[in-house]
């Protein structure tokens, strides 16, 4: 009988944390406790897990560097990663989210914390039937995210790719050329970018007849009434304050686009 249990790699240099995590999860998942990033990449050459639980503070190669390496390799880039951390300070959350982490679990963790984060993550990013996924690709709404910060674009892609076909554009000056090749159902525009701002790009978008009413959501670091007023005045339908959480981004988009 085929084993259908999800495979989870738990990477932590602390033996007690590895033992605790395995004890809490072994009845529901196949758990592979690993002491280092080096060991993780050795095992990844053998098989790809459904999820990686990754400690941030580790000697030699920490969690941030490990995640960067994962996301830079096409073989591992789609594996969802949840950070395990002794402190959920804002800077770590922002940095981890920018690198592509899909969640954070604070140590010491309870069984409920662990299960809730894992089940939510697997539901959103879990592997489906390959044939069904391939068939569904052409039916996904298209989102175009434009931001000069590569970390923001990686985060947006990671948070939305299960529901939408996501295109990212770090160079706003290439927007007009791109719109001759694809037709987005919604735009995410960075509020402030060098050269061309998100506001400058709205007339370019509206210059295409098929995008006269396409929803535009602005991404901004300062969410004030003035920002919202300016966004609406330029034809935007909403704005999202950076750094944003996955639930906020998905809920905002869901108001203006149907999956």
Query: Number of helical runs?
Result: 11
CATH class of the largest domain: Alpha Beta
| CATH architecture level-2 label of the largest domain | 3-Layer(aba) Sandwich
Task: Kindly report the CATH topology of the largest domain.
Answer: Rossmann fold
Integer-rounded radius of gyration: 20 Å
Number of strands: 10
Features:
259 residues, 19% strand, five-stranded parallel β-sheet, 11 helices, alpha/beta, 2 domains, Rossmann fold
Overview of this protein structure:
- The protein is an alpha/beta fold and 259 residues long.
- It has 2 domains: 7-127, Response regulator (Rossmann fold); 133-254, Rossmann fold (3-Layer(aba) Sandwich).
- The protein has 11 helices and 10 strands.
Can you describe this structure in just a few lines?
By secondary structure, the protein is an alpha/beta fold. It folds into two domains: 121 residues, Rossmann fold, CATH 3.40.50.2300; 122 residues, Response regulator (Rossmann fold), CATH 3.40.50.
Write the layout of secondary structure elements.
Elements: E1 7-11, H1 15-25, E2 30-34, H2 37-44, E3 51-55, H3 63-72, E4 81-85, H4 90-99, E5 103-106, H5 111-125, H6 130-137, E6 142-146, H7 150-160, E7 165-169, H8 175-178, E8 186-190, H9 198-206, E9 216-220, H10 225-233, E10 238-241, H11 246-254
Parallel strand pairs: 1-2, 1-3, 3-4, 4-5, 6-7, 6-8, 8-9, 9-10
């Amino acid at each position: 009988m085929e084993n259908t249990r999800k495979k989870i790699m738990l990477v932590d240099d602390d033996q007690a944390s590895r033992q605790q995590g395995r004890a809490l999860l072994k009845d529901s998942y196949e758990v592979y406790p690993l002491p280092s990033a080096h060991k993780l990449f050795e095992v990844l050459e053998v098989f790809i897990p459904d999820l990686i639980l990754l400690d941030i503070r580790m000697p030699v190669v920490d969690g941030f560097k490990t995640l960067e390496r994962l996301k830079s390799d096409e073989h591992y880039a789609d594996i969802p990663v949840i950070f395990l951390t002794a402190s959920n300070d804002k800077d770590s959350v922002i940095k981890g989210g920018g690198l592509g982490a899909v969640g954070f679990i604070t140590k010491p963790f309870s069984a409920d914390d662990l299960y809730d984060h894992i089940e939510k993550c697997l539901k959103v990013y879990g592997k489906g039937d390959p044939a069904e996924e391939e068939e569904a690709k052409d039916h996904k709404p298209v989102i175009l995210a434009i931001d000069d910060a590569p970390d923001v674009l990686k985060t947006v892609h990671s948070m939305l790719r299960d529901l939408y076909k996501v295109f990212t554009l770090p160079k706003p000056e290439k927007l007009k050329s791109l719109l001759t090749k694809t037709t987005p159902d919604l735009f995410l525009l960075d509020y402030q970018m060098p050269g061309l701002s998100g506001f400058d790009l709205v007339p370019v978008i509206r210059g295409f007849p098929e995008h006269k009413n396409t929803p535009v959501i602005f991404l901004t670091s300062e969410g004030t009434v003035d920002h919202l007023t300016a966004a609406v005045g330029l034809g935007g339908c909403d704005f999202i304050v950076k750094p944003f959480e996955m639930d906020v981004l998905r809920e905002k988009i869901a108001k203006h686009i149907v999956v």
